Amino acid sequence: MPEAIIEVALKPQYADAQARGAQHSLNLAGEVKISESKSAHLYKLSGSADPKEAAMKLLCDPVTETWKEAPLLRPEKGFKRVEIWPKDSVTDVTGESVADAVAELFGNCKVRCGEAYLFKTDATAQQLSGAVLGTLANGLIHRVTVTE
User: Fold this and answer.
1) What is the distance between the alpha carbons of residues 118 and 16, in angstroms, rounded to a whole number?
2) Kind plus residue range of the DSSP H or E element containing 129
3) How far is the C-alpha of 89 from the C-alpha of 40, rounded, in Å?
């Protein structure tokens, strides 16, 4: 079963309420200072369904969103990328729902859903990871990775 990760993000001309909410939560917690943020939805697909077809026809709203089969949000200087995924041992009910829709339209597929953020911050990766685990993610059920 080939695996693909589809990343779906808002086009730049649209306000990113999810990113703003995450930024506000992190700043309110006080452990790190975030000055800019962007967000994207992540879909890890494996199975017989064509991930590109699923992205174009189901996962992405072409009017307001754009998608890519590789990281769409890449960290620029001063930014860090945060990915939040459910741990493998945790049931991903959103992923199961998306998998049902994909299977009905394009063929059998297993799906895991996650979130990606770009945060402009001076915090270290370790500081940012700790802050995310205290606000946006639950360490019991989520895996958080930070890249620069």
Assistant:
1) 12
2) helix 125-135
3) 23
Residue 145 confidence (pLDDT): 96
Average the pLDDT over 22-30 and give the result: 96
Question: Is the pTM higher than 0.90?
Answer: yes
d(CA 123, CA 110): 35
Q: Is the pLDDT of residue 126 over 60?
A: yes
> Which residues make beta-bridge pairs with 5?
44
Whether the predicted pLDDT of 71 surpasses 80: no
- Say whether pLDDT at 127 is over 80: yes
**CATH code of the domain made up of 3-147:** 3.30.1280.10
- Tell me the C-alpha distance between 47 and 109, whole Å: 4
Q: What is the spatial order of strands in the sheet that 142-147 belongs to?
A: 65-68, 3-10, 34-47, 109-121, 79-86, 142-147
Residue 46 burial class via C-beta count within 10 angstroms: exposed 0-12, middle 13-18, buried 19 and up: middle
